[in-house]
Model the fold of this input.
Amino acid sequence: MRDYLQAQLRAVLDTLGDVPPDFEIALETPDRPEHGDLATNTALRLGSVLDDNPRAIAETIAERLRERVDPARIQSVEVAGPGFINVRFAQDYLFDGLADLLAQGDAYGRSDAGDGQRALVEYVSANPTGPLTVGHGRNAVLGDTIATLLDWTGYDVTREYYYNDAGRQMRVLAQSVRARYEALATPDLDTKTLTLDDDTTVEVPEGFPEDGYLGEYITDIARSLYDEHGAKLLTTESLTPFQEAAEEAIFADIEATLAQLNIEMDAFADEQSLHDEGRVEAVLDGLTEAGLTYEEDGALWLKTTAFGKDQDTVLVKTSGEPTYRTPDIAYHITKFERDYDLMIDILGADHHAAYPDVLNALDALGYDADRVDVVLYQFVTLVRGDEPVKMSTRRANYVTLDDLIEKVGADVTRFFFLMRSPDTHLNFDLELAEEESEKNPVFYLQYAHARICSVVDKAEEVGFSYDEDADLSLLTHEAEIALIKELLRFPKALRDAADARAPHLVPNYLEDVATAFSQFYDNCQIIGVDDDLATARMQLALAAKTVLKNGLTVLGLSAPRQM
RNA sequence: GCGCUCGUAGCUCAGUCGGACAGAGCAUCGGUUUCCGGUACCGAAGGCCGGGGGUUCGAAUCCUCCCGAGCGCACCA
Done:
């Protein structure tokens, strides 16, 4: 409909003369029903271009539009206010749309806007040094839902998880496990005292790294190694068995957490392979050839000042190890080599200063960095009552994503992260978590869905049989028409959310649908009225169920038959 | 000091490309049930859209300055 109207308006503008051919025609859904179903401010914006009264321009456009528009689709074209042109849909258009919705069923809402382009969404990407935090949860749920939105809008989507297994972090992790293992294998081993940032102290085994990981899970991993190997590993110098055991155990944990949230990755990419395949070296060579590096103080620097930054950035440390940026660039090159049209990275706000380096480097190396789209999300702040909850990955005294899921459930957890714009800082009061979960709008959506299921059950119970070729034109009640219009917005709502990488638009939309359904339900009896009308209303209820179900599915939420 | 993201009702947040009287949920107060799920529906109250200046026919939205919050500005990731 939008496309149709856009084309008709364009044709009308061509008859006016003096309108630039690239003049943009903006169509919007007005807030108020009395302003019609679609409105355009074209005449207002043409006022200055044509140097004429907007109201007069609007009258001219409206008149010519009425002449050429198909009455089966458009009921009326009116000029209102300072020069808005309000268009009202014909009822037949609504009924045709509703019939189409019902025919599409589970596929309703899908579109081919992406035209089969290949998209890679990289998300989670937490390094396997400990359980996922609530912050990782936001990343995971955002990435997963953006991936689903792209899938529904016609992209061929791959979900990928990248992790750094080559750097210092993993070495410290392995050393931490090893120290705990040594303590288990040597009960009288000396201990030492570590003083942490907050001036608290903790007793650790002698060989424990200064900045080691203190979580209980480290000891668990050490214990399972001890159970399996006894004291044998004491004789080996290598950290490899410790690192491998830690990585395996922690990854199993992470994947289990993700599975609880309905998240399954298609692929994992690791940093070590990039080193092994010489890709990191190749990046350094490439950047050096491009004249973007220099050596100073024993390190290799990237001239980020050439990209407008106020300082240069280290690519290779004096130790000879690259900083994470270098393999990151190499990793992104593998994405290009795998021929993705669109690459989306989901990153926390703390990365915002770093990712431009990667994009600029890619650009300098001849890759089209415009195909990489970074979605930044703000941090999740946890509070308990009025007290902020201190989080430290190192101490593992944080609230894990598992804790949160256990407390409020997977649906609420997902919805909580999805209902707000990625740009907003999330405040989460743990003390009120359970109470709040009962007020969470996700239940409002699920309740509406369950209610429709209940009506279907009731119909069967009382022996009311409704068939598919209902006379939908019997749906004339204000609440019925409003619900139909709401339901027909679904595909556009998904496209908008996908295009803007803004999952929160979907919950917002679905709340409108649930409200429209509840109002319809409240005003219009279904079972028990005249059979033809009852049949038509039943079909409308099923259409609402379809949209709610599909919408919840896109969000990765369950659509329960009863609550 | 510099950069990024923000600041909208008591609280948590929407607000499309600059458009019509600024919205929702929760909390508060009031109303609705012989009938398909009242976990619902209807209504009331609640706003200097952080503040000043500017652009525009029109600004919560764009520009600028100021105030406030979070996050960066590592040879950590």
Chain A has 20 helices and 17 strands. Residues 479 and 522 of chain A are 9 Å apart (CA to CA).
